[in-house]
Amino acid sequence: MTRPRYFSALLAFCMFSTGASGLVNQYVLATLTTYILGNSIEQFSIVIASMMLMMGVSAIVQTKMSDKYLIDKFITLEATMAIFCAFAPLAIYWAYASFTDHFLLIHYFFVLTIGFLIGFEIPLVMRIIEQNKVSLKTNLSLVYAMDYIGAFVGAILWVKFLLKNYPITEISFIVAGFNLLIAFITVIYLLRSKLIKHVWFSLILMISATILLSVGYWKNQALSHLLEQKFYDDPIVYSHTTKYQHLVITENKQLNDVRLYINGNTQFSSLDEERYHDLLVHPVMSLAEPKSVLILGGGDGLALREVLKYKEVSSITLVDLDPQMVNLATNNKQLSQLNKYAFSDARIKILPADGVSDIGVRSLELNSGEFDKDGSEILERVASINVYNLDADNFLKRTGEQKWDAIIIDFPDPSSIEINKLYTKEFYYQVKKRLSEYGFIAVQSTSPYHAKEAFLSIGLTLKSVGFNQIPYRQYIPSFGDWGFHLAWKNSKSRQDIKDRIRKIQAFAVTTTFITPEVLVASLAFGKSELESKSKCINRLMSPCLMNQYLDYSWQVD
Phi then psi for 439, rounded to 5 degrees? Predict the structure, then answer.
């Protein structure tokens, strides 16, 4: 016979464990869906709501179960749930890689099944407590409290530790393994108390689950890499999930094509990235003739590479949220060669929590191509560089009265609410405050053909805060027809700036693709191409740009 106090404490600890693992498992499935489909708000809402629905269904279904062998049923439940939760991400990933059009069937099979299993836990524990003559009145609050406290602890561990240090496919095995360990401890205690009826069945089930999870954990990285490769035409040479995004680099050595993907979306191809960065950087640099430049985004260092060509620039500030992206661009062989070692001597520090402070501006010296008498190559002193790793919106709000002559905005497309914030009226208002009186900004603006309404929304949003703006475009083979915006805040008209562009005889630096003629041609749009049906001005509390991008973009090939 078991002692009621110890028995209640053990079950309470089980509920703490299941509360923590249950919530993390919901986060794992929702995050995985976000990685695949995008739109984090929608995916988290649907996945967690679906699991909550099944938890309610299972709470009703369990009332139809007999009271026989409740502890045996609880052990079976925990072992089964550990297996499902551990292997769900790999199975969903396999389904997406193998039959993309129907992978949601597999995805929601796991979402609904795991939600159903989680819903059994609390009712089953309450029935076990009641069956073993332990006071239900005094233990009801304990069971629920430990479940909720466990969920809180699980959420903190998810945000502060798990997501930062492990890929999704590994987190699922860690969490399931922890939950199975607690179940194992419970089984040992219950065996000693002779409360398990089918001893050998329970032991075999627990040992089998442990073996499956151990093998799965051991093989999960190899399996993940094998599955991930199915999504890319060229061999993967780097794959890593940071706190903020999933980074993949592929390389086709025959074509000399290096590609960076962020969350599965093409960031650039080395075959044509110079076209993109020429169009993003050189028009604004030619018009602004800046001494100081702010780059928002651009953690790959490719925009920085182009800015560093301008000797008159004395100060460059680059802001990218993800320190791992900057670290990759600094230390990865393929990326550092592409960006011409742009970060090679820049001091990089994470912003202190109390605000933007001096992080030690340091001059950057690059090879000049000229040689001294002793045969050593002369180092040429160029702009001082500050690199900050924090959210661009927070950076702009913390910079006091500092202004820049040119601001280059190179964010990914607004496919999530986190990125959409950086295309809003509120954000552009902060940008306007940080732009010098006669300065210019350049904004990456997605495709004017494949995402017409999103492209036009960016221009309308810039205009809504008082910017004058000119859209322009260029064909980038990796992306297709791609768009940008030039914007300024002084009284110069659009025609004045277009006239200045047409008067450019040559760029002040060596470019790879862009010429004055190419820039002039990029200003041309056809009939109705600049006419918006939605008239969407993107706001923080009304993210119409993200909705336009997700719902209507890339419907035309």
Answer: -85, 170
Three-state DSSP string of 351-367: CCCCCCCCCCCEEEEEE
Q: How many degrees, rounded to 5, is the angle at CA 36 between CA 115 and CA 45?
A: 45
In whole angstroms, give the CA distance from residue 139 to residue 298. Answer: 55
Which domains occur in the chain, in start order?
A: 4-229 (1.20.1250.20), 265-552 (3.40.50.150)
Distances (CA, A) of 191 to 69, 124, 183, 188, 197: 14, 19, 12, 5, 9
Lookup result for tokens 């919106």: 393
b/e per residue, 211-231, with b = 16+ CB within 10 A?
A: ebbeebbeebeeebeebbbeb
CA–CA separation, 140 vs 128, rounded Å? 12
358 is catalytic: no
Q: How many CB atoms lie under 10 A from the CB of residue 197? A: 12
Read off the DSSP letter of residue 158. I
Query: Which of 410, 413, 496, 551 does the annotation list as catalytic?
Result: 410
* Amino acid (1-letter code) at residue 268: F
320-355: b or e for each residue (b if 16 or more CB lie within 10 Å)? bbbbbbbebbbebebbbebbbbbbeebebeebeeee
What is the pLDDT tens value at each position of the chain, 557 positions in all?
455 666 677 777 888 998 999 999 999 999 998 888 877 888 999 999 999 999 999 999 998 888 888 888 888 999 999 999 999 999 999 999 888 888 899 999 999 999 999 999 888 888 887 777 666 566 678 888 899 999 999 999 998 999 888 889 999 999 999 989 988 888 887 777 677 788 888 889 999 999 999 999 999 989 998 999 998 999 999 998 888 888 999 999 999 999 999 988 899 999 999 999 999 999 999 999 999 999 999 999 999 999 999 999 999 999 999 999 999 999 999 999 999 998 875 544 444 434 454 433 444 444 445 555 555 555 555 568 888 989 999 999 988 889 999 999 999 999 888 899 999 999 999 999 999 999 999 999 999 999 999 999 999 999 999 999 999 999 999 999 999 999 999 889 999 999 999 999 999 999 999 999 999 999 999 999 999 999 999 999 999 999 999 888 877 66
Token pair for 129: 């407590």
Amino acid at 308: L
Residues 6+ apart with CB under 8 A from 271: 255, 256, 257, 477, 478
Do 75 and 202 touch, CB atoms closer than 8 A?
yes
Given CA atoms 32, 37, 40, 41 in this order, what sign does their dihedral have?
negative
Give the relative orientation of helices 70-98 and 199-229 as an angle to the nearest 10 degrees.
Answer: 10
